[in-house]
């Protein structure tokens, strides 16, 4: 693995972090037990497979040039045992204990002197199912890249990776120079002119989209406490496709409408009045090209979407989401205030270093909740022969944000991971239940068929 500078957006995530606002994303993977496979074997596999992933051996170091920049370098003292740990939950309900513990572990910032990731093997006191919590700093990867990195722990991916490595041999990759070749300078200069023009357009959109009248019930506008709470929900992927075939649009449109309806339900249960204006969701969009080169850093833009919580009818909410997302897609991911990540990509390293304290407070002016979908491999996965049964993604909370919702589809289920400020949303489980209830009601309205919620 060569030494490389942090890309501008990665550098932004690195500088945006504070003790109360850790900028790592994660996932809670749940496995069924297999005969003869104990925690010791699983812990050994986690350690050996994580150590074999080159990206997980990289740490962040200061550089002289460019001023304010940082670089990924191989940690010569890398010890995987500093990153992989076993913890035991004694709760009779394993999933309840695992999600509670995962929330507590997500509170802890990742140490800056080491490669910025951790894995926790979460076991019950008496065997049975177990879980693996993976934490990756957002500077290390966006959602799609995190999946590519984290997938290396699974039996199926590890076998393929090992075979490819053996076929190639372990040839060293020479470090890339941080200074461009003189022949590249003219092309870079022209490229920068285009980037500056695009940055000015995005910057103007961001300014226009800023709000002084902040939305939301008290829970979503509460000051950050630095605590974290996790809750999960499960939806039937087959039912999701039945809704899509009946109503049109995309599966993501439907899930966004479900989140809007769940927020409406949750507010009603809390006795909150409906807001005068709909809350805004930031919906990340990957800028990675299918089949293209796998860039190591973040390649993100985003859409801003008003979640129609003020609409009473679930189908009306779905139509509103579809219409808004169609407009976003027609404009493209590089236009509009949601492309603030693209703006970050155009700033020099020194601007990120000194501008981070100001930018950290800007998220609250642009959006109220993050809603993101994380793609997973479609094939069945396992760890040490223990089948993966669920994977709940977890998105980071920006400063001033109290809730982030992440979704992934695996094994015929849509797994929803909700991350919240623990003090602002102590009733996060009620919101998770509202997600399942809203999905059930939408399915019944669309298909005319009642169904039992996923257990």
TrEMBL record:
Residue ranges occupied by any O-acyltransferase WSD1 C-terminal domain in the UniProt entry: 297-442
Uppermost EC category: transferase
GO terms, molecular function: diacylglycerol O-acyltransferase activity
Domain O-acyltransferase WSD1-like N-terminal residues, every copy: 6-254
Pathway the protein takes part in: Glycerolipid metabolism; triacylglycerol biosynthesis; Lipid metabolism
Origin organism lineage: Bacteria, Bacillati, Actinomycetota, Actinomycetes, Kitasatosporales
Family in the record: Belongs to the long-chain O-acyltransferase family.
Keyword Lipid biosynthesis: yes
One Pfam family here: WS_DGAT_C
Keywords associated with the record: Acyltransferase, Glycerol metabolism, Lipid biosynthesis, Lipid metabolism, Transferase
NCBIfam families, per the entry: acyl_WS_DGAT
Protein name: Diacylglycerol O-acyltransferase
Superkingdom of source: Bacteria
């Amino acid at each position: 693995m060569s030494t490389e500078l942090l890309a501008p957006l990665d550098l932004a995530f690195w500088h945006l972090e504070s003790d109360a606002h850790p900028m790592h994303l994660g996932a809670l993977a749940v496995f069924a037990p297999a005969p003869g496979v104990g925690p010791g074997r699983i812990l050994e596999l986690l350690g050996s497979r994580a150590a074999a992933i080159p990206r997980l051996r990289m740490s962040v170091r200061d550089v002289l040039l460019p001023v304010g920049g940082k670089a990924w370098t191989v940690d010569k003292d890398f010890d995987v045992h500093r990153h992989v740990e076993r913890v035991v939950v004694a709760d009779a309900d394993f999933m309840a204990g695992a999600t509670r513990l995962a929330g507590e572990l997500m509170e802890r910032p990742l140490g800056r002197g080491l490669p910025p990731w951790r894995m926790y093997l979460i076991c019950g006191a008496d065997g049975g199912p177990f879980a693996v919590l993976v934490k990756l700093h957002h500077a290390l990867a966006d959602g799609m890249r995190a999946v590519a990195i984290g997938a290396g722990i699974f039996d199926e991916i590890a076998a393929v990776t090992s075979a490819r490595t053996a076929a190639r041999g372990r040839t060293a990759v020479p470090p890339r120079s941080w200074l461009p070749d003189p022949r590249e300078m003219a092309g870079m200069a022209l490229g920068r002119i285009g980037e500056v023009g695009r940055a000015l357009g995005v910057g103007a959109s961001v300014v226009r989209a800023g709000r002084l009248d902040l939305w939301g019930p008290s829970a979503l506008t509460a000051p950050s406490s630095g605590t974290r709470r996790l809750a999960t929900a499960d939806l039937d992927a087959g039912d999701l496709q039945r809704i899509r075939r009946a109503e049109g649009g995309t599966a993501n449109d439907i899930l966004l409408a479900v989140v809007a309806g769940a927020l409406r339900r949750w507010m009603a249960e809390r006795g909150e009045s409906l807001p005068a204006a709909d809350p805004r969701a930031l919906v990340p969009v990957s800028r990675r090209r299918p089949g293209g080169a796998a860039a190591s850093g973040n390649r993100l833009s985003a859409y801003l979407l008003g979640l129609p919580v003020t609409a009473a009818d679930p189908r009306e909410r779905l139509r509103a989401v579809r219409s808004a997302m169609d407009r976003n897609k027609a404009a493209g991911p590089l236009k509009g205030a949601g492309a603030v990540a693209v703006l970050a990509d155009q700033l020099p390293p020194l601007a990120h270093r000194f501008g981070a304290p100001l930018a950290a407070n800007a998220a609250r002016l642009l959006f109220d909740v993050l809603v993101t979908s994380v793609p997973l491999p479609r094939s069945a996965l396992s760890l040490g022969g223990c089948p993966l049964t669920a994977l709940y993604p977890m998105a980071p909370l920006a400063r001033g944000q109290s809730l982030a919702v992440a979704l992934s589809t695996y094994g015929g289920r849509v797994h929803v991971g909700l991350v919240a400020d623990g003090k602002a949303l102590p009733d996060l489980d009620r919101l998770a239940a509202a997600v399942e209830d809203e999905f059930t009601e939408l399915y019944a309205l669309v298909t005319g068929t009642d169904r039992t919620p996923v257990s």
